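seq as requested:
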Amino acid sequence: MTAKGRQLTLREKIDPATTALVVIDVQNDFCHPQGYHAKAGADMAMMPPMAAALEPLVAAARRAGTLIIWVRATYDEIVQGEPLAEQLSKGGVSPVRCAEGSWGADWFDPIRPSEAKNEVVITKHRYSAFWDTEIDLYLRSNGIKTIVATGVITSGCVESTARDAFFRNYFVVIAGDSCASYAKERHDASLRKFAMTMGVVTDSATIAELWRGAAPGLRGWQIEAKKAVAPRTFEELIAPGRTALVIIDMQNDFCHADGVMGQSGEGLQHNRSIIPAIVGLLDQARRTGAMVVHVQASYGDMVGGPSWLFTVGETNLRQQCCLPNSWGGRQVDELPVKTGEPIVVKHRYSAFTDTRLDNLLRSNGIRTIVCVGTATQACVESTVREGKLRDYHVVVPSDAVAARDRMRAMHDASLEVMGLYFATVVPSRRLAEGWSGFGRRAAAE
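struct tokens:
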């Protein structure tokens, strides 16, 4: 796991190789004297100096080869829910602004993107750029650790985006003079609050000067940089300091004869048969220092909507399985949870959906997940697929995942699919061999 708590200098934080300049909503309807908000009576005094400070900062980012993410907003009626429409209609004005294809949605000259490879444009429909956009994909795909936030409105979309970036484990620097609001007191209050609790506020000239003095070299968005950090061997792929063993749904209701599945007549021999392999991998993970995460399903009426609880023509055991605080929901005795090992409680098949798993992994520098448990074609595969789509390397030990006995054909097919598209599928002994090498080295040290 990564060391935490070290205080980075501003120069370290905004290294062009791992930083993205994020330009938010610098569009005519927000910034131009003939735009929507100006016509609605907003004070536009801060917009010209904001643009004057932002223009050389963008130029500095371009010279340094920094990734630049241009964020534009559109608020057409079709993308508005009732709560947003209510807020945008305050004062009796139309909620539609920056309509797609309109002059109001265009960039506020001279601030606009180029067609360079390190500049991308995303469109958002809520205040934060992290809601329903691909911004996190661009950041994590290009090795970004820090965002420099700029644009409008400081206390609205800039602050919302900066907060969400911080919550997603990015360092955040706000270039205060490259942001603007319709009231200076709100702008200042927003910056003060952010600097107190979430990040750094500085001026654009300081950032530009550090970028001018940055050493040349690869930037995270360049393919050569990505090749340089990609694992080259299986041993590099499963290096314990960057790997987590994720144990999925090894609970009594799925694995014990007295559990809900066993009592309903399901054969559980296959589920039981993988316990020794998981025990072996768990012991090795603990010895080598790999992170261990126990994922446990928790179902029941309060976490199940109609589409989850009621399926036409099918008896749904999810209404009875792994109920909160039940014996059936406990992990099997052979796999006790050790103090300090996190438990992730999930309510859907994927261990990533509506859980803290992604945050735990990202917070601890994990790049590879080893998925074991049950059921192969349901909760394991769902977790594997989503893990891959979130840019984790995924390893599946083929003899440490299982399904109910009557579903062996699905288990086999699932392993084939995962091996083709989503994971490295190997016998558990291959993983054990790789980890044993780390164990010997750790013991020698």
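Confidence is low (pLDDT under 50) at residues 440-445.
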